Task: inverse folding
């Protein structure tokens, strides 16, 4: 029997084990940042083979504090791709610095190194490449720019948790990598994030910035200015429970993407850009189409939600720019994500595929 329930673009999937993990933390009587956070950080260090992991309230705060930990502040500028969630640029402003928007490659949707090189200024202190949707940014080329101009690199890996490139885990290939555990990510702690780094000085600065300027809560001495960006153990307990499901979620993401490619890649109206290799995966199956907006509206009427790419930052009121960004304009105008909740069924995937095929057949 076919289901006619609405098919969302993405919803988080939580189970009894997740509820029990949070319940156990509540009944323990310790709900502030503590043992669950430390345990989660150790698990992250082991999984990604990095010496340091620091939990954070979100990826936005992770990027902001990572930049501050690397010395970015008032009067500085930071290179940011103009196709990204607005939090990437907002994180730069949280430090007191100003983002410089960089065009993206319309195929990979990631920062264009050639445009990045053109936009470096005398006060530029860092680059924040975004591994958009788990597709690796061009880090080797961006490192050459960083080396030439003495810039730090902070990877925005909000959409690339446990995705890889030929160099290794995304988010472990620079000064710091920042991750998200928001509800639209492959695993979630409600809100949350973390930073991975191989640099002890960055780790120490992150801890001070996160907890009122001190390295240890047992100390009442605050040598520098810090803030309160701690994560509760309830969130960490949920993150740890969800983290156990990550390998299965990644495999299901790959299955979902393969099913879409098998069912839709012959349509000339849809362009499926290259998928990550070397152990990478897409968190959300993406495509481009000149008929995207009409397709989105057609499927919406059938109870199926597709997610258009965000408007490019240079078209957002908060970051408006008159500079030219042709690659970004194309990506944000045509890019779209297909439904891919972890619990979407094969029957529902077939329903999405059938609806898309009928749309394009009827619009020829």
Result:
């Amino acid at each position: 029997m076919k289901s006619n329930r609405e098919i969302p673009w993405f919803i988080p999937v939580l189970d009894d084990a997740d509820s029990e993990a949070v319940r156990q933390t509540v009944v323990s009587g310790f709900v502030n940042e503590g043992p669950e956070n430390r345990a989660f950080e150790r698990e992250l260090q082991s999984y990604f083979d990095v010496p340091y992991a620091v939990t954070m309230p979100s990826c936005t705060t992770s990027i902001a504090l990572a930049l501050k930990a690397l010395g970015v502040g008032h009067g500085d500028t930071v290179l940011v791709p103009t196709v990204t969630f607005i939090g990437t640029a907002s994180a730069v402003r949280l430090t007191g610095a100003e983002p410089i928007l960089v065009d993206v490659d319309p195929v990979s949707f990631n920062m264009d190194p050639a445009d990045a090189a053109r936009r470096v200024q005398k006060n530029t202190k860092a680059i924040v490449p975004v591994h958009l949707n788990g597709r690796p940014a061009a880090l080797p080329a961006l490192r050459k720019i960083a080396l030439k101009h003495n810039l730090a690199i902070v990877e925005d890996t909000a959409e690339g948790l446990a995705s890889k490139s030929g160099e290794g885990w995304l988010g472990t290939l620079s000064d710091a990598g920042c991750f998200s555990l928001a509800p639209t990510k492959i695993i979630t702690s409600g809100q949350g994030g973390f930073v991975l780094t191989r640099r002890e000085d960055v780790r120490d600065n992150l801890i001070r910035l996160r907890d009122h300027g001190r390295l240890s809560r047992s100390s009442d001495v605050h040598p520098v200015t810090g803030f309160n960006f701690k994560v509760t153990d309830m969130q960490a307990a949920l993150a740890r429970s969800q983290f156990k499901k990550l390998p299965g979620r990644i495999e299901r993401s790959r299955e979902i993407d393969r099913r879409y490619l098998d069912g839709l890649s012959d349509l000339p109206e849809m362009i499926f850009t290259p998928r990550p290799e070397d152990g990478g995966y897409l968190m959300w199956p993406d495509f481009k189409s000149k008929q995207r907006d009409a397709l989105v509206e057609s499927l919406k009427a059938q109870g199926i939600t597709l997610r258009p790419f965000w408007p490019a930052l240079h078209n957002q009121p908060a970051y408006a720019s008159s500079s030219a960004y042709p690659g970004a304009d194309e990506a944000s105008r045509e890019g779209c994500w297909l439904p891919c909740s972890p619990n979407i069924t094969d029957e529902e995937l077939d329903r999405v595929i059938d609806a898309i095929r009928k749309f394009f057949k009827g619009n020829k």
